[in-house]
Structures are given as C-alpha cells and as structure tokens.
Hints:
Layout (H helix, E strand, L loop, with lengths): L21 H4 L13 H17 L5 H11 L15 H12 L2 H6 L1 E2 L2 E2 L1 H8 L8 H4 L6 H11 L6 H4 L20 H7 L1 H14 L8 H8 L6 H27 L5 H19 L6 H11 L2
Antiparallel strand pairs: 1-2
Helix pairs in contact: 2-4, 2-6, 8-13, 11-14, 13-14
Amino acid sequence: MDITHLPQPRARVVTKLHRASWDKVCLPKGLGGVGFRDGKNWNKALMAKFLWALANKQDSLWVKWINSIYLKGRDIWSFPKTQDTSWYFKKLLKLRDSTDEAKLRQAVKGTKLKAKVFYNLLVKKPKVQYSKGIWDNLLLPKHRFVYWQIINTQLLTRDFLSKFLPLQSTLCPVCDSEEESHEHIFYRCIFTKRVQLEVNSWLGNYSWPSSNIDLSYRCDFKKHDLRNRLMNMVTAAVYYQIWANRNCCFFDVTCASPKSISLEVRNIVQLRVSSKGPFKRSHGNSYLLNVIKNW
C-alpha cells in the first residue's frame, strides 16, 4: 500500500461561532446561565441520592444489599476504602469524601434528596439580579433566550465578528451610520428609537432602558406585579424584533418599518397575555387587562 495516497487530515473549518462558554450556559438560571446541566456535576447530584439513602438507612432492597455486602452495620461516613470494593461503590465513596452530611441535608425535602437542589449547591457562583425578569414565563421562550443573550452581550454583532472574520463593513446593517455593537443596536440606533416611539404610541410614556446596566436593574423586580411583568415583556419583545429585523436586513436585504414592528409587538403581547391568564384578581390587574385588550 502506497502511504503517499493515504487520506490527509482535513483542516478544521469553523462554521459557527458562539460567544457564551459552555460553563456559562450550564449555570442555573438564577446564577446567570441558561439552566443546561453539566454532565459531570449532574452525575454527582444523582449519585448523591444513593449516598443519602445509605446515610439515612432508607428502607430499600438496594440499601439492605449494600449493608449486607459492604457496610455490615457500619456508618457510610466512617467506612474505609478497600481494594475489593466494586467500581461503583468506590465512586460513591469518592463523592462521600468530597461532601458531608450537612451539605446533603441542604438538598433534602422531606425524606428525599433532590438532585436538582444538590446540583445547584455544587455551583459556586453569586446570584444575578436580572434572572427574575429574563426568565419570567410571561415572555415567549425565544424572547427569553435572546433577552439573556442581550443582557450578557452574547449576540454575534459585527464589532465582535470583525475580530475573527474579514468583514467588508462593521457598520450597522439597519442604519448604516455607526459600528454595530450591542450598545448601538439596542440603545443608540436611530431605527431602534423610532420603533420605541411607535410602541409608546399605544403603550404610553415608557422610558426605555439606556444601557445593559439599566436593563439589568429593571429586570430585578422589586415588586413582582403584572405591570412590571408587562413592561418587561414588551421590552423583551421589542428587542427580539429589533434583532430579528437586523438579521433580515443583513441576510435578506429587506428591512421592516418601525410601524410594522410596533404592531407585531402589540399583537404578540395581547395574545400572550390572553393565553397566560387568569391573573390575580385585583382592581389594578383588571384595569391593565382591559387596557391591553383595547390597544
């Protein structure tokens, strides 16, 4: 066989770029992530259920079998490692050495250990103030994800892409007057301001966020009432439509008008609110729902 004709390794071609790291995406939503689960830590959380069952001496056939084969009346926390233990039981002992009974108890509800709670305990990150607004179920799911990308500056804007790819222009494809960045698209672009004016024509005199810091502060609801949730929903819907329109301008060379985007947002909000009820009965909520119905 002629080795000169062996297939040569192909050069790796990058077809997709992602700004968010896998570690960031795997954080719980309350800690700034998307809520995906890291396989290694999730496996530990599931194994912790077995560790708790042994520590709590639960009445199950598996616990009785482990006790008769290995523990023989001894406590799991003081059981020594031996060479003849099975691979799986060695994994349990390794997890035991990296945690303690107090940490397990933090994840216990009733008599059962909750794997999700223990998983969150494994992640040592501070809570973020914006998670309540970003992941509010009043928002459409696709709006939530883009909203999360905006507040974490994770969208593939031209100022970021120009660092890796040769672009003919880094100007905003919508207004063509300034370099495209998160701050420009959502807070400074002339087109965005026109959309916001159109939305205010039916929403009222709403003061829009001026930066990501301002947006993050507004998503931290001091009062989780329908009015705050509604304003947050409109903001997310407008930002989603602005980003979608930007993509149409770039890829399809067809841009929507501020008026059409405003009407689309209004329809989305009306349909979403009507589908997510009933809401808490109060005079204020009844008034808001009647206003939304008559937009």
